[in-house]
């Protein structure tokens, strides 16, 4: 049974990361449609604003509650997030809520002492329900969209694999919130097998998306992205083998940790290059920052896994 303290902190930390990810998924979908599909544009925009509102409420509850490890990990915001949002808003005309980023960047961690604990617990329970309802709707939207794209009934500039990729992330988020609502004790270190299989696949696909969205003249970056894709494909297979106890999970964790450090550095340099207009591509700057934050999130988890295995 999850304690009240852990329920509050883990819920808010999860939303600080994933609510931002979900709102950006909605943004990427929104800007990928043609004018013919204005109904899809409107629906994606509504989800984006819904997650904006959710994230705002989460931020107001998180001051002095969430851990410094999460706030300092780079998974909440990065040094590039604000500029990436401004550039992406400029390119698309979509009004991105940059004020959220400014407030989020100033969050501090401390004790629960300043909070009415019982009242905060009720608010977090309600936030979790809102997150599940919103995410359930977004999952339905992504599922329909993927089916429409695969059957050639609609065109979007987003790869079918990218739609499938963000659909899996939404389902993963929903599952984690649902477990928190059920007060299940989530021992991250015990879930190394499942988490490493999931996130290694995500890292592999990020590499392939980057590879495919770079200008054909960016040979060096394309080759680097391609190599990361192959590396994380191998790590995904190894994580699955570890689940079957064919190889020790500690080996996969160590290899994944080093690979994730490297790809995070690559993504940081890439995001900076996009923001400063030094890379030729069709990558919207916020997508670079988005993948950077996911690498930082995974890196924090891997450090927990390794510590548990020592």
Automatic annotation (TrEMBL):
It comes from Clostridium saccharoperbutylacetonicum N1-4(HMT). It comes from the Bacteria. This is DUF2935 domain-containing protein.
């Amino acid at each position: 049974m999850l304690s009240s303290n852990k329920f509050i902190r883990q819920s808010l930390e999860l939303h600080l990361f994933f609510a931002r990810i979900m709102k950006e998924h909605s943004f990427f979908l929104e800007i990928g449609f043609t004018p013919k599909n204005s109904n899809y544009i409107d629906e994606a925009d509504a989800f984006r604003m819904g997650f904006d509102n959710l994230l705002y409420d989460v931020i107001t509850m998180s001051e002095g509650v969430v851990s410094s490890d999460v706030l300092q990990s780079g998974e909440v915001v990065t040094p590039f997030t604000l500029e990436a949002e401004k550039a992406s808003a400029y390119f698309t005309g979509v009004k991105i809520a940059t004020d959220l980023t400014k407030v989020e960047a100033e969050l501090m961690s401390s004790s629960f002492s300043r909070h009415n604990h019982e009242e905060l617990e009720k608010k977090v329970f309600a936030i979790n329900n809102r997150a599940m309802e919103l995410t359930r709707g977004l999952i339905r939207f992504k599922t329909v969209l993927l089916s429409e794209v695969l059957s050639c009934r609609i065109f979007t500039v987003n790869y079918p694999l990218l739609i499938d990729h963000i659909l899996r992330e939404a389902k993963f988020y929903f599952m984690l919130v649902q477990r928190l609502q059920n007060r299940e004790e989530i021992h991250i270190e015990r879930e190394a097998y499942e988490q490493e299989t999931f996130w290694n696949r995500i890292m592999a696909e990020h590499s392939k998306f980057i590879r495919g969205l770079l200008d054909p003249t960016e040979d060096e970056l394309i080759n680097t992205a391609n190599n990361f894709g192959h590396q994380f494909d191998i790590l995904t297979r190894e994580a699955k083998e570890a689940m079957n106890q064919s190889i020790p999970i500690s080996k996969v964790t160590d290899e994944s940790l080093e690979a994730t450090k490297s790809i995070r550095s690559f993504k940081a340099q890439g995001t900076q290059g996009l923001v400063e207009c030094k890379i030729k591509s069709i990558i919207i700057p916020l997508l670079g920052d988005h993948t950077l934050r996911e690498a930082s999130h995974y890196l924090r988890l891997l450090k927990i896994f390794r510590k548990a295995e020592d």
